Amino acid sequence: MSQIPVILIFLPVLTALFIYLFKWRHMHLLALLTQTGMTILAIVYFLHFKDQFEATHIILGGWSDVRIGISLANDGLSMAFIFLTLFMWWSVLTYLYRFGKTEHTFLFFLMFLQGVFLGLLQSNDLFNLFVFFELTTIIVTILIAYKKTGESFRAAIYYLLLNTSGVLLFLIAIVMLYNLYGTINIRVLSEVIHTHADTTILKFAYVLMMTGISVKAALFPVFTWLPKAHGVAQSAISALLSGLIVKGGIYLFFRINFLFESAGLPYHNIFFILGLLTALSGIIFALAQKNIKLMLAYSTVSQIGLIIMGLSSPDITTFYGGVLHTFNHALFKALLFLGAGVIIAVYRTKKLDEIRGVFRTMPIISVMMIIGMLAITGMPFFNGYISKSIIKYGFEDSVFRTLALYLVNIGTTTLFIKMSHIFFGPKMLSYPMKHRQQNITLLLLALACLVFGNFYVEIMDAFFGIDYAHITRISLGGLLDYGITVIIGILIYLYVLKKDVKLVKGIREFKISFETANILFIALLTVLTFYFVIL
Amino acid sequence: MSRKILLVAMFAVLFGVFATSMIELETLFNTYGKTYFLEHGYAETGASNLVTAILLDYRLFDSLFEAGILLIAVSGVIWISKHDVEEKNAKFMIDKYKTPDLFITFARLVYPLMLAFGFYVIINGHISPGGGFQGGAIVATAILILYYIDANKETNIGLIVTVEKILYLLIVLMASISIITQGAFFTNFFNPSADADLKAIYLVLLNVLIGFKVALGLWTIFTAFLKEGR
Questions:
Q1: pLDDT of residue B137
Q2: CB contact under 8 A, B7 and A522
Q3: Does B59 contact chain A (CB < 8 Å)?
Q4: What are the domain boundaries of chain B?
Q5: Residue A72: enclosing H or E segment and its boundaries?
């Protein structure tokens, strides 16, 4: 029973190896079987340890000294992320049911990635985190390059180089912490971290770690790899990357902040600003795009900014609002990417202007897509509304923060008003493909959006023990807010975006070269160093 | 130009902070981990090479995934460089007539020595410097020299990759046996209080498996690159 975390990590890895070794015809069924087994194991484990997460500390190798070996540990947050991981893999595996029948290599990488990601979530050891961090980067690189076109190679190498430099900063920080405390066990470290709170080396280690994580989580200004990678990958991989893998960076963001909690570093304001800049720059780039996958990818950047704004709050309810938004974003962004994948496959183009009449051609998919859009823009009764309300509630005291939140929201709404043009127009005459199991996946994700929009009180209470009863499903103010946002969005669309003014065109054609991206990366490191160490 | 000045300034700041923290470290340095491994390393793992003790016992879980990185890299390189994994008998770009005879003669002399040295490093990994990862790299280098001796050498990549995956499975299984004997994953399957010679059995077995896996992995990568170069 207590060894279930290890099994959860190795079951998908072993399945991946079996798939690679025996390329039988029905190997995708084995993947689904593993998935079922893992889901059952995770549920059993959660129900058993629900009230005693301190007991989930497993020391691998059974060493009596906690500070020496590697250990795994779980808490409410990691359990919630494990369930999200399993759910996302269910979606991708069912969505790719037909594709996975023949592409064994693809399934191999996909299943291996799941094991590695589950390891990243459960690890309680900094160096072990680094190993999983690195392995995720490499597998994702291969998945991005999987189509073997020039564009995907370029995006993959760009992703690999930038993320590897981030990961290396993380490694340097681990060396510093080990020299300082003699251990890299996260639970032990978080108890003793305050003993060297005022030293330069501790602050610098924090800065190095945070910069590495910022690259992984695609924060401003190092988000440039994300739209490239998510724009060229297959839609299912884009959904997985946007929905979950980027969240690996966000997960580490709050894990490391928890670790440094007692050192009392003033991280709240600077990460709020960074989150805001991420959100704004993401949405500005998104609005200018005309490729639906790039629009969705940049929208991921802006939503990550929103999540970081929530997570950087010192108030615990707002913090969990950010966590809830991480989950909600995973659900609706996966829904949108997968829906867009079907649309792109049918229309054979990614250009917004050339896709018309989706509603008459594919009514079911359109309904799902509209649910996703309503959720991401924050319509009452859908999940996006809840998490945005929680964050808004937490920012009530500050006019600046509230305004910033509204600004991001208006941008998102405008973006999806722009995108909703694909639904109008006449029916497509020749309708080339069937996509029944894709419909099932989309239906599952849409249902999940509705469940999270209506049963959030129970879910949050079960995982984190936080009471959100004060956030109502619907209120007059909320509806009014949403209406006004939509009206402003329509106005912006009609008067700025539709005319394609020079500024919009300029932003669309604005490219950040790899050299500039590196300079921005060093600049971020320097700014954080100034903020935390020198000032 | 202004970009360069900015970069230099930023690096100066970063280096200054880094130097300050390293100077600080002189007084703050914590030796807990170091002394622990020095005092208990041999007694608990039976390996007088403490690197092996950490790699194959204390932090075996990490090593499994470090080997996994190589596994993934090999599969990735093959996927990207080739269009058909089953393709056999590739010819290599090394032209027999361009390789000097002297080099071929010496390569023939050196080849068995390198192979023997590689195996020595693998098998004695728990006593002297070395181990599966390092020895595997040496063995792979020795195999690569074969391509200089015989330019028409045929390699069945599909088979090597399959064997490599099976070896990885065996490594994971070998590391997991301890859950039955010791009640905890990823350690020696003999009791920590057992004789050092007994525990060496496990270390040698694991080192050999890792060594072969690494050698095969590097061999595959090299072959894939040769084909790409052609």
A1: 93
A2: yes
A3: yes
A4: 31-229
A5: strand A71-72
